């Protein structure tokens, strides 16, 4: 039942917004009693934390395994899978800043995950430089700025599009992949840029 509650919450938040749903919406969607719901979760915040656990787990799987095996084709595949996950959990990222502001425990978990993912992404970036996929950065400061901006256009792109009035959520995947690549393009070596463009059909 716990997983059914989480699944129903994801569906509802994607339909009507994470800030609009209540525990009653979830109870009605599943056709369960309030007692059954509160046996598993005290409130909506607890469910959102569980959703974030799923998010961190599924994103973590994208970067699992031996980093040395990464190629430009592998990275292109990951970019696409990244935005499939952002679409899957879009309601969370539409309101990520609000959610962190309202829940100190979620904020702590998000920041812990940020530090872990940042180190993983930095290791991958260094490897891509060594493999000649990315150009060598001029300094560690330049690399850190590059990595910070990758994070911004990933985790905070959906909240921007919502504020800008984007009404076609399915377009978020294609547009997200394109924006990610366009940001990366100046940092890719010429051969890698051409290959990435061909693979992604951009």
SSE map:
Elements lengths: L1 H15 L6 H8 L3 H7 L3 H19 L9 H17 L1 H5 L1 H7 L1 H27 L9 H16 L1 H8 L6 H14 L5 H11 L2
Helix pairs in contact: 1-2, 1-4, 4-5, 4-8, 5-11, 5-12, 7-8, 8-9
What does this structure look like?
The chain is an all-alpha fold and 202 residues long. It has two domains: 1-42, Arc Repressor Mutant, subunit A; 48-200, Tetracycline Repressor, domain 2, CATH 1.10.357.10. It is 76% helix and 0% strand. It has helices at residues 2-16, 23-30, 34-40, 44-62, 72-88, 90-94, 96-102, 104-130, 140-155, 157-164, 171-184, 190-200. Helix 1 (2-16) packs across helix 2, helix 1 (2-16) crosses helix 4 and helix 4 packs antiparallel against helix 5 (72-88). The protein is elongated and about 60 Å long. The mean pLDDT is 91.
Give structural attributes:
mainly alpha; Arc Repressor Mutant, subunit A; Tetracycline Repressor, domain 2; 2 domains; elongated
Integer tally of domains: 2
Shape: elongated
Q: What is the number of helices?
A: 12
Instruction: Give the distance, in angstroms, between the N- and C-terminal Cα atoms.
Output: 43 Å
Q: Structural class, please?
A: mainly alpha
> Main beta sheet: strand number and arrangement?
none
Task: Report the helical percentage.
Answer: over 70%
Write out the CATH superfamily name of the largest domain: Tetracycline Repressor, domain 2
The second-level CATH architecture of the largest domain is Orthogonal Bundle
> What's the number of extended β-strand segments?
0
- What would the average pLDDT be, to the nearest integer? 91
- The fold-level CATH name of the largest domain is Tetracycline Repressor, domain 2
Helix/strand order, N-terminal first: HHHHHHHHHHHH
CATH top-level class of the largest domain? Mainly Alpha
Poorly predicted regions: none
**Spatial extent as radius of gyration:** 19 Å
Q: How much strand content do the residues show?
A: under 5%
């Amino acid at each position: 039942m716990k997983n059914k509650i989480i699944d129903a919450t994801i569906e509802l938040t994607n339909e009507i917004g994470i800030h609009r749903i209540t525990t009653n919406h979830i109870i009605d969607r599943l056709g369960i009693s309030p007692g059954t719901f509160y046996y598993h979760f005290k409130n909506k915040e607890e469910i959102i934390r569980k959703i974030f656990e799923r998010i961190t787990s599924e994103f973590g799987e994208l970067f699992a395994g031996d980093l040395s095996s990464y190629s430009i084709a592998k990275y292109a595949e990951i970019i696409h899978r990244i935005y499939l996950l952002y679409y899957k959990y879009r309601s969370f990222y539409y309101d990520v800043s609000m959610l962190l502001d309202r829940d100190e425990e979620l904020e702590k978990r998000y920041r812990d995950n940020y530090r872990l993912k940042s180190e993983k992404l930095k290791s991958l970036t260094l490897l891509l430089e060594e493999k000649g996929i990315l150009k060598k950065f001029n300094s560690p400061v330049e690399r850190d700025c590059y990595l910070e901006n990758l994070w911004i256009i990933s985790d905070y792109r959906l909240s921007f599009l919502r504020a800008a009035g984007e009404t076609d959520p399915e377009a978020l995947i294609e547009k997200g992949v394109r924006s990610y690549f366009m940001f990366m393009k100046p940092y890719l070596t010429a051969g890698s840029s051409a290959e990435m463009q061909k693979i992604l059909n951009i």
